[in-house]
Amino acid sequence: MEITQELKLEYPCDWEYKLFIAHEHDAHGIVQEVIGERFCALKKSQASKNGTYISYSLTLLVHNDDERTALFQAFKSHSSIKFVL
Q1: Whole-prediction pTM
Q2: pLDDT tens-digit series, residues 9-44
Q3: E-assigned strands of 1-85?
């Protein structure tokens, strides 16, 4: 039996994405490609064991569920982003 729980958020709200980007890529440039000139907070989190990838915490204001998931898909499909949470 599978139990699914729907995420209930009050919009607009700040949402955090965790981005995993190869160390040689410019994280700020990549984020700007996806979100344009929107205000955000991007913080470096951790490097992978061998330093190949760096994780970043990206926080930005989202206005609804469609926007939140569309941004997730845009980050996920970006060629320089290895993984998104």
Answers
A1: 0.88
A2: 999 999 999 999 999 999 999 999 999 999 999 999
A3: 13-22, 40-47, 53-62, 81-84
